Amino acid sequence: MTERIVVVGAALLDEGRLLAARRSAPPELAGRWELPGGKVEPGETPEAALERELREELGVEAEAVERVAGEWPLKPPYVLQVWTARLRPASPDPEPLEDHDALRWLTSGELWDVDWLDQDVPAVREAAARLGA
User: In which family does this protein belong, per the annotation (predicted)?
Assistant: First the structure.
């Protein structure tokens, strides 16, 4: 059995809103929305990977808060795990720096206004429970 590679996604929450990022690449994913994040590097904790990916992709300083229950299969050998995260007090506003061409802060009533990547839908549902709560 091949080793699984964990991809972390950030349910970045701020003032009752969830950040969605629109993919600009690869072509088969471009134009669809996802929770920002990326691969956990060898020797890195998922939380550290999440914070690094948010810095690289969005230019923000954020902290992982708690893991969202569940794990979702991506293309083998990848699996998606999601953490809620929040911006640190002095963080700049997020900007789409790499792999994305747009960002949107969505309230619980707007969550399904964007075309989420299929594998992100169950994770967004889980994160949504934290928005309304």
Answer: Belongs to the Nudix hydrolase family.
